């Protein structure tokens, strides 16, 4: 693979012809999910699919302490609703879930906000004991999407999900393993070996059979009928939150490193 095809925000390699690795590599911004990084990840998955890469390992450069800081806060106000359908994050999550192979999240360090959703969208998760998962939308005044919440409901008990979203409290590696968010929990020294061993095991299986099972599970997860009235109510609640003064206050408070003062008022 030509280095010219790889974004400077990513380190990419192909192992044994059937395993692709993608490492987010923007430590200065703690791998924040900017539109540029989200687009680069999306395009790389398209490239791997064209190459018929059976297993993708998604990680970050080692020794950063942060897997990803979540959405690039400087872009949140411009995006207004950065998790909405059709935005770069939504496109990437859909790409991960529809990838015609297995995507393994290899997690070392803390995972924040939208990056937690990215991990949840992967097929398998291998992590070391430094891993933690924190949902921060309520700190910023960002209402999360129904599709995103459904992904969390498939992975977590409802009361743990509420704790994560209401309190913005981290889910540490041990609790994440307990609730099945993590498939394999290992030491930092063994993380690469464990993720690679799992990828090798999967890559040796019949690819069409694996792809068929993954797609069936994706479709079954998406079978969530919802009345039109409920969808309209959710859309209105999200619109009010996105247009409120609290969203600007949340972002400005984060950038100014002070506690936000939320009022629940409109724009």
Automatic annotation (TrEMBL):
EC number: 4.1.1.41
Signal sequence, start to end: none
GO term, biological process aspect, one: fatty acid beta-oxidation
Coiled coil, from the record: none
Family statement: Belongs to the enoyl-CoA hydratase/isomerase family.
Protein name (record): Methylmalonyl-CoA decarboxylase
InterPro entries assigned to the protein according to its UniProt record, in alphabetical order: ClpP/crotonase-like_dom_sf (IPR029045), Enoyl-CoA_hyd/isom_CS (IPR018376), Enoyl-CoA_hydra/iso (IPR001753), Enoyl-CoA_hydra_C (IPR014748)
Keywords: Lyase
